[in-house]
Specification:
binds adenosine-5'-triphosphate; six-stranded mixed β-sheet; P-loop_NTPase; ATP binding; 252 residues; nucleotide-binding; Rossmann fold
């Protein structure tokens, strides 16, 4: 029995015949923030999307390797993918609210899973928006379109929408790169607020963001995991020369 919430072993992923990930081994303790860093094209997003089977939506992608979520095989044919993506939620680079109200955005996943009791929905919508640190800004306009919010507010509503279905893991693919610095800072604070209740895996291009928010950093290059360690160690004294070269800005 492992105490890891998520284990990935020997992950190889192919776009057509081209191997984009060359055998990644990486596992995760429950809670905390792991940052995935590395140059453009190093495979960070490809790897992240494999964790909740997002590639299933694309033709021509083959995923090999072992993926265990609390010991259960993520890629088992019997895995319910809707259920999986509730437990391993995803937040994208571009805030992507649905074109309906703030409330309905956050309640979306709950309604899909059959919850229609208004009091219950109200409570979870409020709790999720509070956890995502956007409640105070939207509590008086819950029935206005989510599209009327700023990009940073939309992104925190997207986080609330993901939290509403009680995930254990949240995957975040460059969650602040489309935002202005103030909004990015607010989203970072949200992630710091929730890191002790969720396991967060964040792809980021920003090394300063990785060092500000993450407990652990994994450095990817050319489809390989070069090294993973606690964030201080990676940024102050990495074991691998490639990591040192990247963090000191010699490439990427
Ligand atoms: N849909 C696709 N079809 C074919 N090749 C792809 C596809 N998506 C990504 N790739 C290739 O897979 C490799 C890894 O790309 P990926 O987007 O995972 O890197 P990344 O580290 O997330 O890059 P970035 O930081 O620029 O987002 C690259 O060589 C890329 O060209």
């Amino acid at each position: 029995m492992t105490d890891k919430i998520l284990t990935t072993e020997n992950v190889r992923l192919y776009y057509g015949k081209k191997e984009a990930l060359h055998g990644i081994n990486l596992d995760y303790d429950q809670y905390g923030i792991t940052a995935l860093i590395g140059p453009s094209g190093s495979g960070k997003s490809t790897y992240l999307r494999a964790l909740n089977r997002m590639h299933d939506l694309t033709d021509n992608v083959t995923v090999n390797g072992t993926f265990l979520f609390k010991g259960a095989d993520i890629y088992s044919p019997s895995t319910d993918k809707v259920e999986l993506r509730k437990q391993i939620g995803m937040v994208f680079q571009q805030p992507n609210p649905f074109p309906f109200s703030i409330y309905d955005n956050v309640a979306f996943g709950l309604r899909i899973s059959g919850m229609h009791n208004k009091a219950e929905l109200d409570e979870i919508v409020e709790t999720s928006l509070k956890q995502a640190a956007v409640w105070d800004e939207v509590k008086d306009t819950l029935h206005k379109s989510a599209l009327s919010l700023s990009g940073g507010q939309q992104q925190r509503v997207s986080i609330a929408r993901a939290l509403a279905t009680s995930p254990e893991i949240l995957l975040l693919d460059e969650p602040t790169s489309a935002l202005d610095p103030v909004s990015a800072h607010l989203v970072e604070n949200t992630l710091l607020d929730i890191r002790d209740k969720y396991t967060l895996i964040v792809v980021t291009h920003s090394m300063s963001q990785a060092s500000r928010i993450s407990d652990r950093t994994a450095f990817f290059m050319n489809g390989n995991l070069i090294e993973v360690n606690n964030t201080k160690k990676i940024f102050l004294d990495p074991d691998q020369q490639e990591t040192q070269d990247y963090i000191s800005g010699r490439f990427g």
